[in-house]
Amino acid sequence: MRQADLDNWFSYHAPRPEQVETYNTLRSKAKEFAEVFDASVPDCADKTAAMRHLRETVMAMNLTIACYLAPTVESLQAVLDSPEKPDLYINPDGSVTTDWDLN
Protein backbone atom coordinates (compact mmCIF):
# COMPACT_ATOMS: atom_id res chain seq x y z
CA MET A 1 0.00 0.00 0.00
CA ARG A 2 1.12 3.49 -0.73
CA GLN A 3 1.19 5.86 2.26
CA ALA A 4 -0.65 8.45 0.17
CA ASP A 5 -3.53 5.99 -0.34
CA LEU A 6 -3.72 5.20 3.38
CA ASP A 7 -3.65 8.90 4.23
CA ASN A 8 -6.44 9.55 1.72
CA TRP A 9 -8.63 6.60 2.73
CA PHE A 10 -8.44 7.27 6.46
CA SER A 11 -8.88 11.04 6.42
CA TYR A 12 -12.05 13.05 6.81
CA HIS A 13 -13.17 14.57 3.52
CA ALA A 14 -15.66 17.38 4.04
CA PRO A 15 -18.21 17.14 1.23
CA ARG A 16 -18.25 19.81 -1.42
CA PRO A 17 -21.61 21.00 -2.81
CA GLU A 18 -21.53 18.82 -5.93
CA GLN A 19 -20.49 15.83 -3.85
CA VAL A 20 -23.53 16.21 -1.57
CA GLU A 21 -25.80 16.01 -4.61
CA THR A 22 -23.98 12.88 -5.84
CA TYR A 23 -24.13 11.26 -2.39
CA ASN A 24 -27.86 11.94 -2.14
CA THR A 25 -28.62 10.67 -5.65
CA LEU A 26 -26.74 7.40 -5.18
CA ARG A 27 -28.19 6.76 -1.71
CA SER A 28 -31.70 7.51 -2.99
CA LYS A 29 -31.34 5.07 -5.89
CA ALA A 30 -29.87 2.39 -3.61
CA LYS A 31 -32.80 2.87 -1.24
CA GLU A 32 -35.27 2.53 -4.14
CA PHE A 33 -33.60 -0.72 -5.13
CA ALA A 34 -33.64 -1.94 -1.52
CA GLU A 35 -37.35 -1.20 -1.23
CA VAL A 36 -38.17 -3.08 -4.46
CA PHE A 37 -36.00 -5.99 -3.38
CA ASP A 38 -37.52 -6.04 0.12
CA ALA A 39 -41.06 -6.12 -1.28
CA SER A 40 -40.20 -8.77 -3.87
CA VAL A 41 -38.58 -11.56 -1.87
CA PRO A 42 -39.34 -13.32 1.43
CA ASP A 43 -37.34 -12.66 4.56
CA CYS A 44 -34.46 -15.11 4.82
CA ALA A 45 -30.74 -15.23 5.55
CA ASP A 46 -29.86 -14.57 1.90
CA LYS A 47 -32.08 -11.47 1.82
CA THR A 48 -30.34 -10.19 4.94
CA ALA A 49 -26.94 -10.85 3.35
CA ALA A 50 -27.97 -9.12 0.12
CA MET A 51 -29.16 -6.04 2.03
CA ARG A 52 -25.89 -5.98 3.95
CA HIS A 53 -23.95 -6.09 0.68
CA LEU A 54 -26.08 -3.27 -0.72
CA ARG A 55 -25.27 -1.18 2.33
CA GLU A 56 -21.57 -1.99 1.89
CA THR A 57 -21.86 -1.00 -1.77
CA VAL A 58 -23.31 2.39 -0.79
CA MET A 59 -20.43 2.91 1.64
CA ALA A 60 -17.91 2.01 -1.08
CA MET A 61 -19.60 4.51 -3.42
CA ASN A 62 -19.33 7.16 -0.68
CA LEU A 63 -15.63 6.40 -0.34
CA THR A 64 -15.17 6.76 -4.08
CA ILE A 65 -16.90 10.14 -4.09
CA ALA A 66 -14.98 11.41 -1.06
CA CYS A 67 -11.56 10.23 -2.16
CA TYR A 68 -11.62 10.45 -5.94
CA LEU A 69 -14.21 12.96 -7.19
CA ALA A 70 -12.09 15.93 -8.19
CA PRO A 71 -13.20 19.42 -7.21
CA THR A 72 -14.93 21.51 -9.83
CA VAL A 73 -14.37 25.16 -10.63
CA GLU A 74 -17.75 25.86 -9.02
CA SER A 75 -16.84 24.11 -5.77
CA LEU A 76 -13.54 25.96 -5.58
CA GLN A 77 -15.32 29.25 -6.25
CA ALA A 78 -17.79 28.46 -3.44
CA VAL A 79 -14.84 28.00 -1.07
CA LEU A 80 -13.27 31.26 -2.22
CA ASP A 81 -16.59 33.09 -1.85
CA SER A 82 -17.31 31.74 1.62
CA PRO A 83 -17.21 34.19 4.54
CA GLU A 84 -14.62 32.03 6.34
CA LYS A 85 -12.05 32.45 3.52
CA PRO A 86 -10.11 29.22 4.20
CA ASP A 87 -6.58 28.74 2.96
CA LEU A 88 -6.27 26.49 -0.09
CA TYR A 89 -3.52 23.91 -0.55
CA ILE A 90 -2.60 22.21 -3.80
CA ASN A 91 -1.62 18.60 -3.06
CA PRO A 92 1.09 16.71 -4.99
CA ASP A 93 -1.62 14.76 -6.87
CA GLY A 94 -3.24 18.01 -8.04
CA SER A 95 -6.18 17.80 -5.65
CA VAL A 96 -7.11 20.76 -3.51
CA THR A 97 -7.40 20.77 0.28
CA THR A 98 -8.71 23.60 2.42
CA ASP A 99 -7.85 24.31 6.01
CA TRP A 100 -11.41 23.08 6.68
CA ASP A 101 -10.25 19.60 5.58
CA LEU A 102 -7.27 19.77 7.93
CA ASN A 103 -9.35 20.33 11.07
Write a short abstract of this structure:
This protein is mainly α and 103 residues long. It has one domain (3-102).
Describe this protein with a few key phrases.
103 residues, mainly alpha, single chain, 5 helices
Task: Describe what you observe in this structure.
The chain is mainly alpha-helical and 103 residues long. 66% of the residues lie in helices and 6% in strands. It has 5 helices and 2 strands; from the N terminus they run H-H-H-H-E-E-H. Strands 1-2 form a two-stranded antiparallel sheet. The radius of gyration is 18 Å and the shape is elongated. The relative contact order is 0.15.
Would you spell out the secondary-structure blueprint of this structure?
Blueprint: H1 3-9, H2 17-40, H3 45-68, H4 73-81, E1 88-90, E2 96-98, H5 99-102
Antiparallel strand pairs: 1-2
